[in-house]
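User: Here's a structure from my thesis project, written as structure tokens. My advisor, Dr. K., wants to see whether a designed sequence matches the one we expressed. Can you design one independently, without my sequence as a hint?
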């Protein structure tokens, strides 16, 4: 279902076009580095679903958030352009964990969409633009540490929305330094 972007073609014909830039950003390793979590061996050697279960049942989500996210500084190179009207945080992950992470980093005023798998992101982005934003921006800027799914669907989305998409690869090291951002 999430690959059938063409279901939005009819709806997009009735949407107003605005001279604006809409920002779509991932969270983990795009806005906030998970390097500290990995270094402290919380995620090492655990598959994605095992990692979430480990955090929920062994560490406890509240403790995890307190240790790794609350009152932490992180780069503002991407978020300084965020606005609740021009931005969507679109992240894949475990909802019980992603929401507290966003809240702990003071980004809860920004619209948030959590998908189970990254491959759902293009569909959910288009759905958000059509059903929530209700206009087509002149450009969409996508910030991702793993942009493959957007690269695969970029031409289709540009055609369906009749807009320009710029995809930016974000390479974070730690939260204390600004990430390297490269348009691809």
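Assistant: Designed independently from the structure alone:
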């Amino acid at each position: 279902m999430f690959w059938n972007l063409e279901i939005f073609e009819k709806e997009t014909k009735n949407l107003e076009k605005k001279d604006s830039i809409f920002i779509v950003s991932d969270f983990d390793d795009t806005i906030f580095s998970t390097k500290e979590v990995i270094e402290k061996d919380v995620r090492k050697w655990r598959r994605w679903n095992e990692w979430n279960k480990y955090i929920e049942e062994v560490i406890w989500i509240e403790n995890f958030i307190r240790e790794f996210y609350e009152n932490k500084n992180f780069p503002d190179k991407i978020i300084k352009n965020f606005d609740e009207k021009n931005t969507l945080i679109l992240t894949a992950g475990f909802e019980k964990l992603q929401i507290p992470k966003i809240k702990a980093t003071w980004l809860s005023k920004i619209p948030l969409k959590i998908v189970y798998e990254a491959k759902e992101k293009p569909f959910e982005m288009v759905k958000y633009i059509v059903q929530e934003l209700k206009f087509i921006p002149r450009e969409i800027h996508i910030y991702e540490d793993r942009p493959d799914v957007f690269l695969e669907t970029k031409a289709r989305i540009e055609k369906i929305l009749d807009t320009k998409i710029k995809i930016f690869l974000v390479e974070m090291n730690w939260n204390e330094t600004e990430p390297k951002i490269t348009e691809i």
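When you compare it with your expressed construct, this may help: Residues 170 and 181 are 5 Å apart (CA to CA).
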